[in-house]
Amino acid sequence: MRIIDISSNKLHSVLFIVLPVVLIVGFLIFSSVTIISTGEIGIRSRLGKAISQEEPGLHFRIPFIDTIKTMEVREQTVEKTYSVSSKDMQTISMTLNVQYSIGGDALDLYRKFGVDYKNKLINPRISESLNAVSARYTIEEFITKRNEMAAELLKEVMADFDDYGITVAACSIIEHDFSDEFDQAIERKLIASQDALTAQNALEKVRYEAEAEITKAKGVSEANRIMQESLTPLLIQRMYIEKWDGKMPQVSGSGVTPMIQIK
């Protein structure tokens, strides 16, 4: 029994020494390995300073000295509602959908904005670009020129984000919201404009038809004039002879027979 007790004590002593060592080694190995997934990019920092950009795969780092933070480089979407002012100083609530992705130089983007670049860069710059574009359009044009406005906004956002290595694939205006009173005012104005255009088209039609009638009347008058000038007495007499059937007309009365002058 004494031998067994001694062996157990030794085993406990060995485990007491070895187990912490194994745990420490395992922790060091685990903390020195980072796996970067496809669609992500890694930013390696050493003692708090970003030093390199790492591609997807397995990467080793110095424990407690190096850190590797990941940033998504897949296409991402921001859908957010912004409050903007139109050219005629009306307030509009607009919901945008912006699709973007981080380009090759994620290291510089991380150095300037960190991993929270969406709130520090993306959203504020979209808001600035939207305010700049919306100030060029009246509130009526927000409806009639919506596609043109979206194209101009896309151009503004692409130019702005290009300096930071961010590629913008699309920018869409999902919806805009006015007050009910202003919606009704816009509808009345658009209807009035449409009615005015319809009336103008009707007036143009009447004017065209009147001009056509005048032209037609002038043509008939000119044809009559030419016909009258061409009907000389000799021509009339000839036409009469061509239609005469050779019988003398029967005339009752004094017995005077009409004479036809033939030359």
- Assigned CATH class of the domain at 76-178: Alpha Beta
Give the strand order of the largest sheet, numbering strands 1, 2, ... along the chain: 3-2-5
- List unreliable stretches of 5+ residues: none
* SSE-based structural type: alpha+beta
CATH superfamily of the domain at 76-178: Band 7 domain
Number of continuous helical runs: 7
Could you characterize the architecture of this molecule?
By secondary structure, the protein is α+β, with helices and mostly antiparallel strands. It is 53% helix and 24% strand. Among the domains are: 2-72, no CATH class; 76-178, 2-Layer Sandwich (Tetrahydropterin Synthase, Chain A), CATH 3.30.479. The chain is built from 7 helices and 8 strands; from the N terminus they run H-E-E-E-E-E-E-E-H-H-H-H-E-H-H. The chain is rod-shaped. It starts with a helix and ends in a 20-residue tail after the last helix. 10% of the residues are buried.
